[in-house]
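May I ask for an example protein's residues together with how it folds?

___
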Amino acid sequence: MTQMVQSHISAFWGPRAQSADESAEVVSVFLSSLAAVDASLDNWRKRASTKIEATKQPAINDPAQLSDLLSSGQNRRDDNGNVITELGYSIGLWNGDASININIGATSQWVPNCVSIALPDPELRPDLYKYDSALTILTLIINAFHPDRAVWTNSVLTKQQTEPDSLTDDGGYILGQLVGHPAGWGTFLADESSVAFDQELLPQSVKVERVNSGALVIVGDEPGSPPIEDVLQIRRAMGYKVP
């Protein structure tokens, strides 16, 4: 079996106004659902400058705490300290094994709402990388936040989809960028997304499931080590050129 790579999950959606209390309720239900999947996805705490300080933080376990944390994470203007409401609320959580970053309630066209989870090392928490657990986690994110797109991926897969570095006339170089939406072991696109899967270009090995209001494409049975060629073919099916 191919060695598994530590994975992360990201989901993004456009402008969506939500109050701090409404956002806290969504996040609270989501965290409770995560905890039911595996013990390593429970006991979330506010991040701190060191792990020792973070472990001293109280566990976040109710919407009222989350509402206060979300409100404290609002961006403020440099000149007068007023809250920039269109940027929504931000929160970062950690539990010793994994971390979560959430930006929610933003109405700006330039700052997306998003949630990202950095999962533990698969050698330490292998159960999270089993097919059923991984599919449950990804589905929970889609059902909780109703994103336009979501992906379960890792740094190796992302690098394979990134444009190559290029040289400049003065001898320098420009780092290659990832163009568009990345593909991964699990790739979700909502029906209203500006990008759609070309069903005829999807690899025959994939499974396509309806989740919430969109299509979730799963490739292979190993979330931590999906076949790279199939992942790249999913990118092609999304309309992107593969480097």
